[in-house]
Amino acid sequence: MPQVKNKLTILSILFSVLILSFVLYKSEIVYDGLRRGNYYGYFIISLVIFFLSFVQTFLSKNNLIIYRIVFSSVFLSLYAFEFYLLNKPSDQHLQNTNKKEYYKDYVKDNPNAVSIILKNNFNVNGEEIINLGGISNRLTLNCKELDYWSDYKSDRYGFNNPDFVWDNSQKTTFLIGDSFIHGACVKEKYTIQAKLRKFKSDINVVGLGLSKNSLISEIGLINEYTENFDVKNIFIFYSEGNDLIDLTAEYGNNILKKYLDEENFNQDLKNKQTEIDNNLIKFLDFELNRSKNSYKGTFYKFLTLYNFRNTVILPYIYTGDMDLFKRVINRLELIQEKTNSRIFFVYMPEYFRFVVSETANQTYKKKGELEKIIKESKIGYIDIVEELFSKTNDPLKYFPYRRYGHYTEDAYEKIAIIIKNHIQN
Question: What crossing angle do the helices spanning 322-339 and 243-251 adopt, rounded to 10°?
Answer without folding.
Answer: 80
